[in-house]
Amino acid sequence: xxxxxxxxxxxxxxxxxxxxxxxxxxxxxxxxxxxxxxxxxxxxxxxxxxxxxxxxxxxxxxxxxxxxxxxxxxxxxxxxxxxxxxxxxxxxxxxxxxxxxxxxxxxxxxxxxxxxxxxxxxxxxxxxxxxxxxxxxxxxxxxxxxxxxxxxxxxxxxxxxxxxxxxxxxxxxxxxxxxxxxxxxxxxxxxxxxxxxxxxxxxxxxxxxxxxxxxxxxxxxxxxxxxxxxxxxxxxxxxxxxxxxxxxxxxxxxxxxxxxxxxxxxxxxxxxxxxxxxxxxxxxxxxxxxxxxxxxxxxxxxxxxxxxxxxxxxxxxxxxxxxxxxxxxxxxxxxxxxxxxxxxxxxxxxxxxxxxxxxxxxxxxxxxxxxxxxxxxxxxxxxxxxxxxxxxxxxxxxxxxxxxxxxxxxxxxxxxxxxxxxxxxxxxxxxxxxxxxxxxxxxxxxxxxxxxxxxxxxxxxxxxxxxxxxxxxxxxxxxxxxxxxxxxxxxxxxxxxxxxxxxxxxxxxxxxxxxxxx
Length: 518
What we know:
By secondary structure, this protein is of the alpha/beta class. 37% of the residues lie in helices and 15% in strands. The protein is elongated, with a radius of gyration of 25 Å.
């Protein structure tokens, strides 16, 4: 018999791996529930059933089962007596599976679409997701044997509609009064199916009215992210530092006033890393596998292979730097391109490799730079899904001079393979990297604060000094390899957060009940 000793937790989101995977949200929706279940919680996910999804996966070969046929979802804001959209809810997994999910099935809005996002009616599609989840929960209350959540965890703008309706719509608010609802924002720049930062004054969403009916043109002009922030019990984002940064105009994405209003409910929890997929001890992608006790010779072999792949002279003694990812301004390419000519001239022994696609101007500048320093620069300016791990396992240092980086997954991946990160201290990078102290041999990387090329240049030169002292450098690499940023760490923090919010909601509802009686 399978028993849960914790809470019933429902997560609501627009995507979940392995069924669909557009961005980091899908990984979050797979790994966090998996780890929370290990802590004794009964965790389930509610998400759309897209047309591109297969109804089976390799995990246990489970098939989707009908959970709730012909779910009636009201279009308007009445009490459910007007026009409606008919959906099905299917389920996948069971209590023994690592994933238990409910899928909203509707041909017009989900199954007949080739993509997950990018449609003119995305606001309608995800308002339908939110409202259907509310209806499913509401109508399930009539069945005493149906599974019911103790807390609901919404994610990104797609589910902001759920929070607003649950807290203010007369059809739902009384049924969900005692229900804690928390909100994770993975990306504050994505606020809905319109650019609310540059909307006309007359179109500004004050959030004074309820979300418009599902098929209303007015719905597109209502900001679901803003509404989710305003009416949720607690909010978090993907790192503690980013939770502070978004309180400033530079990072607030036009939500300055709203974020100041909810700052008492804001926190930050760093995402974890898939330590099974990113595991240098078992990874067949890299030439030589290794762990924190056997990395020295293995990483040297991986380094030589990487140098050959990028057309550079194989030499284990030359410091090899890398930049892997999108070549865009946000990643600090302007800082790096200004610093590199000075660095490569001053240190002709330094090599650097670049992997990734991006803006054309950066591709052209890097190509010119390579012509000027052909023995020191290797380029692969297009996507390649096998090369990143080879870079993590063979390069000595990973350059991450990002202007902003809410989560910082590239730093986690680098640490996992012993590639020392050099980062700008922002967002998740600030929470992940602790400055290496050669006196105590503590720390797992190097960091700088200011958005200028000379700060980056100075930090690289400092790292190269440590590299020349190989005993110190090996201690630093070992620190990287032993850094723990697994999903179990993240799940433990979410566990604490859920319990605190549930306790606070219970106290708030209790006080409100007493005031009503008085």
